[in-house]
Amino acid sequence: MASGQLSRAEALACSGCRHACHVMLYCDTKSQLFGRLPIRHIILMQMRFDGLLGFPGGFVKPSEETLEAGLSRELLEELGVALPILVEDHADSCYAPASSHSSSSSSSSRLITHFYVKKMEEEQIREVERAAASTATDHGQEVLGMVRVPLYTTKGGGGLAAFLSHSFIGNARSQLADSLLRLNLVAPEELHKALTHSLKIHT
Ligand code: GTP
Ligand code: MN
Ligand code: MN
Ligand code: MN
Ligand code: MN
Ligand code: MN
Fold this sequence. Notes:
This protein has 203 residues and is α+β, with helices and mostly antiparallel strands. The chain has a single domain, classed as Nucleoside Triphosphate Pyrophosphohydrolase. Helix content is 28%, strand content 26%. The strands form two sheets. Strands 1, 2, 5, 6, 7, 8, 9 and 10 form an eight-stranded mixed β-sheet that branches. A two-stranded antiparallel sheet has the order 3-4. Strand 3 (32-33) and strand 4 form a beta hairpin. The longest helix is centred in the middle third of the chain and has 13 residues, at 67-79. The site of one manganese (II) ion has 6 residues, from helix 2.
């Protein structure tokens, strides 16, 4: 395991820690941009109230609910759909990086973030997008909108690199990049190029 990573059981053993669970919902798609650029996969992220990109999910209280039930509750609030999340969907757990965006004092308890990945059918993903933009109670409040991650690179170098150049909450950017690699959603050399290029875009 990479440094800072914990198993699900080790993470839960820290009763003094705060816990948050987030999930990457995605599907395969045959659709093409401009009728020629394969979109390949639809990956859902969200524009948060604080202007940062992140995954749907939130704080969970292990003393009151399982991690997975807590994540499902957050998804109902943020996406407006009841999505069962299973222990098998768990990808990794790690200590959250000390964040400059965090308003909490340095003395507050450590945060452990749990990450889940769930593959769905394209029609289910579209239903999530519709519900998130209409019936979700957090729509327009904690969640400003769902966004799809562009996985392609355009002639001008836009697409994945430009997306990765935006600001992300916590380690959501690495959770995205790690997942793209691990699930083989983008070729390793393409991802490496996009990550490198993304750092030069605003400088
Ligand atoms: P409230 O209902 O306002 O408490 O928000 P929430 O429960 O939806 O919590 P939120 O989604 O903001 O997540 C809780 C904490 O986890 C955040 O303050 C961040 O530190 C962290 N976090 C949020 N989104 C992500 C994410 O996509 N990845 C990671 N690794 N951490 C995240
Ligand atoms: Mn157009
Ligand atoms: Mn929430
Ligand atoms: Mn949230
Ligand atoms: Mn919450
Ligand atoms: Mn809330």
